[in-house]
Amino acid sequence: MEPTGGGDDRSPMQANATPAGESARGGDKPAERKKRLVKPHRIEGHTRVVCVFGDPVEHSLSPRMHNAAYRELGLDYVYVAFKPTVRRFSDAVQAIRALGIVGANVTVPYKQAAVTVCDRVTDTVSVVGAANTLYFDRGKLVGENTDGLGFASALGAHGFRIRGKRALVIGAGGAARAVVWALTEYGAADIVIANRTASKAKQIAKMFRSHMPGVHHTDLEVLDDFDFLETRQLVVNATSVGLNGKDFLDYSVEATPEDCVHFDLVYAEEPTPFLRMAQALKRPTIDGRHMLVHQGAAAFKLFTGRRAPVDVMAKAIGIKIRT
Ligand code: NAP
């Protein structure tokens, strides 16, 4: 297991190595230099460690986001990324206990495995079947899932009320489960889950139907069903399609109402293929970084006990949020 460093491509130790006022890269523009050197992160013997486990994890924006929040609040914490192998994941979690690490976020492919390594899990994790946050409560390691809350908060911050709405969720992996959890929890009227492997959509729909009757499943043919699409008020891409910039699936976005919100869980600095399709027809869109920042803010509170400076975390990953 190796620390892979923060989102700014430097390890936390490297990030701390340059004294304030000096630049390790002589050719930088003054504005860039100033941006990087504001409030340098000092790592001392008493600095507390928070981490994220994933594979791959080098691309994760979480270190950047959390370290910016620690700097903002003057907290003596540092957030680093680790890439355990599948075989060593449970050893990695044991290391949290052994080393006194404050807590951990968990990303692909370990969210489901994380459920099995905790002393207890929250009700949300029991329903979703995946944990993205591990923290200690009175010495016990607790598994929580803040993805659904992050999704709902991002919608709320864009003025979208879930209650009574009709949604289409494309995808049936771990992230889709968190999204469906949030939609049922906050009172959506009708949720259709469409997936390439229809049996997986069926399994999720069945699981959630005990909480809410209006959860249905189907395959991807629905993406071309005009009669159905014109009834939707929210369409969520919870697949990983678009992660590598490849085209989105065949989808008749023109059939959706003009105010139908399109939310892509996949995030990138540039609009994703799914969001580009929606934007081309002037549909309102929300990119996955908004969910990322809100799930991160909820985790931050569990790790530090402090309210997260969400605007600072958002800025660190290149977005502006409405607070
Ligand atoms: P996952 O469990 O691996 O599920 C992947 C989903 O994508 C499955 O439904 C899969 O369908 C579908 N899929 C993959 N390739 C496809 C293709 N070529 N055509 C059609 N469907 C395809 O992954 P996950 O954990 O749910 O994550 C999904 C995405 O959400 C990832 O990009 C992840 O980065 C993102 N995410 C973002 C946030 C955030 O904060 N913004 C949080 C969590 C996740 P099958 O079942 O048929 O294989």
Structure description:
The chain is an alpha/beta fold. Strands 2-1-3-5-6-4 form a six-stranded mixed sheet, sandwiched between helices. It has a six-stranded parallel sheet with strand order 9-8-7-10-11-12, with helices on both faces. The longest helix has 17 residues, at 288-304. The protein has 13 helices and twelve strands. It is globular. The model is unreliable at 1-28 (pLDDT under 50). It folds into two domains: 12-145 and 291-316, 3-Layer(aba) Sandwich (Rossmann fold); 159-283, 3-Layer(aba) Sandwich (Rossmann fold). α3 crosses α13. The protein has helices at residues 12-17, 30-37, 62-73, 89-99, 111-115, 123-128, 147-157, 174-185, 198-209, 226-229, 273-280, 288-304, 310-316; strands spanning 48-53, 77-82, 103-106, 120-121, 133-137, 140-144, 166-170, 190-194, 215-218, 234-237, 261-264, 285-287. α8 (174-185) links the parallel β7 (166-170) and β8. The structure holds NADP nicotinamide-adenine-dinucleotide phosphate. Residues 108, 147, 150, 171-176, 195-197, 200, 238-241, 243, 249, 265-267, 288, 291-292, 295 line the site of NADP nicotinamide-adenine-dinucleotide phosphate (NAP).
